[in-house]
Design goal:
The chain has 512 residues and is an alpha/beta fold. It is built from 18 helices and 20 strands. It is 43% helix and 19% strand. The structure holds NADPH dihydro-nicotinamide-adenine-dinucleotide phosphate. It holds the Pfam family Aldedh.
């Protein structure tokens, strides 16, 4: 459990020079959990400078030696998983099952990049301008100091899934976790230093986004942001003015399609798992279910049975299917969306009210039908345990309606035929599409990049792209003999003719 000594040790890792603090909330009880330090913009400037100093040395460390630290970190994460889950649950109110999945995600990230990074980051020979006469290589140079800004819903997974590749690529990181969920992130940072990360390479600052987050965006060499589309736009505009790169993992209004040939029971169980994961506070959770009319009644009956069977509880064991929402703000958003829908004529098939008897921010898993475009929950992200079911007459209608949103993060398709599911997936405008699953297998398939289309983001995490985005490519080309400056005695027109002949020969013989 969280002791004062643990809080003090973790808070020592925060770059904060004043005595200012924030109180964080123990979500299951509503009481105070901890006091965490507040960093100032000056602290951010110092953290970036200190990180920059350490990064110069780190960039010269062999990739294999960098990876060895993360392999030790992997072992420490497994060893301390229970304590991390305790902190994570206190700060977020999520169920132990959701906490387990969250703590597991960085393990997959480490395993993948430990295998792939040495080759991805190694200098690559490239074809030179003229075969044999020009030697060309592509190097991968770290960006320098990466600013990582993360939200409260998956604070541990989202921070480490980004920090790990950024550091392996040779960067330093200045991290701003969400204040409410700072402790679990600091727990991981502490373990990473125990694993041997050079002191100062990973800096943590805590404070209000518009103050401390902005200070990072104004000074770092690259920004990795996960959060709302609204904040993502502000960060993109600011980083754009400085001409520094960024990746943005943003919101969604994800569709789940149950096709006529779906295994209806599997779809009902799968939909419950993904829709109410982390109480729906998951960027990839579906909030819109499009169900083919042929199986609509059967699906709705089975889906409701599964929802009503869910166990909600505030507990530190694995018995709860779903935990609490994380904050009063989130509870109010959910209540607002459901009350608005109810007032405008939606039908509440199940749920629809808070559960203060379980904890201050608990809310029932809620299923709506008859949702229409003038309702808030129709196309705004609720980010809570609220889904709307729509009956569709054809597959084409399901695809059109699934795509009729400004977002494009994740989608799910349920069908007995994977090939059929793949054909539908190819028509969906979403960065990730899951077939017969909601969000787990795509996230866990670290070899394939994932991220958002449209308003759901720019850039990808995972895969080669999730590592190489933290680097600049550098083209190093050498001419082995003088080619671009003809000898003085050669008339330039002859030189042009010679070069054109050479280009023609290369084209014809396809030497390149
Ligand atoms: P916010 O955008 O409000 O906040 C995210 C982070 O950004 C927080 O650390 C916040 O700090 C900080 N921040 C806020 N304003 C600024 C600013 N002007 N400049 C720099 N940083 C700032 O998002 P939420 O916390 O509400 O997170 C939920 C959202 O995140 C949802 O829309 C969800 O869909 C999305 N998300 C996307 C994921 C993805 O991978 N695509 C994954 C998880 C969530 P502070 O704590 O002070 O507010």
């Amino acid at each position: 459990m969280i002791t004062d000594a643990l809080v003090a040790r973790l808070c020592d890792r925060v770059a904060a020079s004043t005595a200012d603090t924030f109180n964080t909330v123990d979500v299951f009880t509503g009481g105070t959990l901890a006091k965490v330090p507040r960093s100032s913009p000056e602290d951010v400037a110092e953290a970036v400078e200190a990180a920059r100093e350490t990064q110069r040395v780190w960039a010269g460390v062999a990739v294999a030696d960098r990876i060895a630290i993360f392999e030790r970190f992997h072992g420490l994460l497994l060893k301390h998983a229970e304590e991390i889950m305790d902190v994570l649950q206190s700060e977020t109110g999520k169920s132990r099952r959701d906490a387990f999945l969250e703590v597991s995600a960085p393990l997959v990230t480490i395993g993948y990049y430990a295998r792939k990074a040495p080759k991805l980051l190694a200098p690559q020979r490239r074809q030179g301008m003229l075969p044999g006469l020009v030697k060309t290589s592509e190097l991968r140079v770290p960006k320098g100091v990466v600013g990582t800004i993360t939200p409260w819903n998956y604070p541990f997974a989202l921070a480490f899934m980004d920090i790990i590749p950024a550091l392996i690529a040779g960067n330093a990181v200045v991290l701003k976790p969400d204040t409410q969920t700072a402790l679990c992130t600091l727990y991981g940072v502490d373990l990473l230093y125990q694993a041997g990360l050079p002191q100062g390479l990973l800096q943590v600052v805590i404070g209000d986004g518009p103050v401390v987050g902005t200070a990072i965006v104004d000074t770092a060499d690259y920004i990795g942001f996960t959060g709302s589309t609204r904040t993502g736009r502000e960060i993109a505009a600011r980083a754009g003015r400085r001409l520094v790169g960024y990746s943005l993992e943003l919101g969604g209004k994800n569709p789940l399609l149950v096709l006529a040939d779906a295994n209806v029971q599997q779809a009902a169980v799968g939909a419950v798992q993904t829709c109410f994961s982390n109480s729906g506070q998951l960027c990839m959770s579906p909030e819109r279910l499009f169900v083919h009319t042929e199986i609509y009644d059967d699906f709705v009956r089975r889906f409701l049975d599964e929802v009503k069977r869910m166990n909600l509880a505030a507990g530190y064991d694995y018995s709860a299917d779903m935990g609490s929402l994380t904050s009063q703000r989130q509870l109010e958003t959910v209540q607002k969306h459901v009350e608005d829908a109810r007032a405008k004529g939606a039908t509440v098939l199940t749920g629809g009210k808070a559960m203060p008897e379980l904890g201050p921010f608990f809310y029932e898993p809620t299923v709506l039908t008859d949702v229409t475009p003038e309702m808030l929950c129709y196309d705004n992200e609720t980010f809570g345990p609220v889904v709307s079911i729509y009956r569709v007459a054809t597959e084409a209608e399901a695809i059109d309606r699934a795509n009729a949103t400004s977002y494009g993060l994740n989608a799910s398709v349920f069908s007995k035929s994977i090939e059929h599911g793949e054909r539908v997936a190819a028509q969906l405008k979403a960065g990730t599409v899951h077939i017969n699953d909601g969000h787990v297998v795509g996230l866990g398939s670290a070899d394939a990049p994932m991220g958002g289309m449209k308003d759901s983001g720019i850039g990808r995490r995972n895969g080669a792209e999730g590592l190489l985005k933290y680097t600049e490519s550098q083209n190093i080309s050498a001419q082995r003999v003088p080619l671009v400056t003809p000898p003085r005695w050669l008339p330039f027109g002859w030189y042009v003719k010679g070069m054109q002949g050479l280009l023609r020969l290369i084209r014809r013989t396809n030497i390149r």
